[in-house]
Amino acid sequence: MDDIASYVQQNRERFLEELFELLKIPSVSADPAYAQDVLNTAEKVKNFLEQAGLDSVSVEETPGYPIVYGEKILGSNYPTVLVYGHYDVQPPDPLELWESDPFEPVIRQTAEHPDGTIVARGASDDKGQMFMHVKALEYLIKNNRLPANVKLMIEGEEEVGSPSLEWFVKNNHEKLANDIILISDTALISKDTPSITAGLRGLSYVEVTVQGPSHDLHSGLYGGAVANPANILAQMIARLHDEKNRVAIPGFYEKVVELSTDERALINGIPFDEEAYKKMLGVEALWGEEGYTVLERASVRPTLDVNGIWGGYTGEGAKTIIPSKASAKISMRLVPGQNPEEITRLFTEYFKKLSPPGVKTEVKAFHGGYPYMMALDHPGYKAAERALNKTFGKKVYPFYTGGSIPIVPLFEKELGAKSVLMGFGLDTDRIHSPNENFGVWNFLKGIETIPYFYAYFAESFR
Ligand code: BES
Ligand code: MN
Ligand code: MN
Question: What is the value of pTM for the model shown?
C-alpha cells in the first residue's frame, strides 16, 4: 500500500483535470432549471466509475434524480465497504459575491492554502470529496490491492433531503448489504489535526407564513388599525428564544440526552482557538445557550435559527405599505433523544399559539432527519483512526459536527450498518456559500488515506 503516495504525486494533474470536468457541470438539485445538468453529472460520474475499474456500473432510475452505482465484489469471505457520496450541489447564489464563476473551477492561493485551493461550487461539498474515493479505488483496483468488496452509491438529491435515496435504500436492502459505510462529506478539525466526525445533528425544517389583510395596505391610512404581519412575525420569532438564549418551545429539551462529564471533556479537549474562530467568521463576539461552551453549542446542543425572512417592500427607496403577509424559513438542529417529527409538531403548536387575533399563521414542514452518533471503539472508527494516523503521523481526534446528513441515521435503521465520517474538508471551505473551495492538499491527502482504511478494516475483519 505504501506506493499510494507516489501514485498520487504522479497522477496529481490528471486527478485535478478530471475533478474539474465534474465541477464544470452545475448540478443544482434544488432548482429545476438545472435538471439536465444534474442528469449529465450522473452520466459523467458513471464514466469515472467505469474508468476506475468498477463493475456493474449503472445510473439507477428513481422517482427523482438517479443514483450512480458501481461495485467490485471479490467474494463472500471478504468484508464489504459501502461508499456513499453526492454529486448534487447547493445553488450558487448570490453570484455577485463569487470572485470567479462558480462553475469554472480555478486553483487559487489563499491564507489557509498557500499551495492552492480548488474554487468552485461543490469543490468540497461533495464532488471533490466523493471523487477522492473514485481515485483511491482506481489505485486499489488497478494495482490489485483491493482487500474488501466495495459498493459505491453516489446520489443526486442530498442537498434537498435525499427523498429518492430513502426509497432506493428501502427497496435494495440486499444489494446494499455491507459491513461498514464510508463517507467523506464532512471536515477535519484543521489541516494539522487529523480527526473523524463521531456525531451529526438531526434537522427539523419549517417555513412559516403570517397572513394579515387580504392585500397590502397604505401604512399611513391603515397603520395603527390592523396587525402588521411583518411586525407580528418579528415578535413571534423573538419569542422562540428566552433570555438565556435557550429555545423557548415547551418540551424542546425534554428528551435531550444530557452529556456525561467525560463526553464534555472530550468535546472541549480538541484544539480550538476562539479568537481565530471569531476572526474567520467576521464577528466580534459569539452568542449562544447559557451554560455551554461554544464547541458544545455548535455541535451537541440543539438550536433554532431563522434561515431567511421576507415580506413587504424590499426594493429601492421607500414604499409605504403594511404587507399583507410575511414569512420565514426556520431550521432546528437536533441531538440524540430528539425526534424530528415530534420537534416539528412542538414547534407548530407553540408557534400557532403565539399568533394573535388579526393574523393567520401557517407552518409548512420540510423533510428532516435524525441525529447520529458513532462509538469510538467501533471497528470502522478504529480503521479510520489508524488510516489517518498513518498518513498524518499524529494523534487522531474524534469530534462532533453541527451539520446534518439525514441519510446516515437512515442507513443505520434500514441497513443496520454504521457510517464512518472520514471527511477531508476544512471549516474555511465556505460550503453552501460564495467562493466554496477545497484545498488541493486536502484532496490529495484524502486519496492517499482512503486505501489504508480498506487495508485496516479488512485486517480487523479477519
Ligand atoms: N455535507 C453537508 C453536511 C456537513 C458538512 C456536515 C460539513 C458536517 C460538516 C451536507 O451536504 C449538507 O449540507 N447537509 C444539510 C442537510 C440537508 C438535508 C440539506 C445541512 O447540514 O444543512
Ligand atoms: Mn454534503
Ligand atoms: Mn451540503
Answer: 0.94
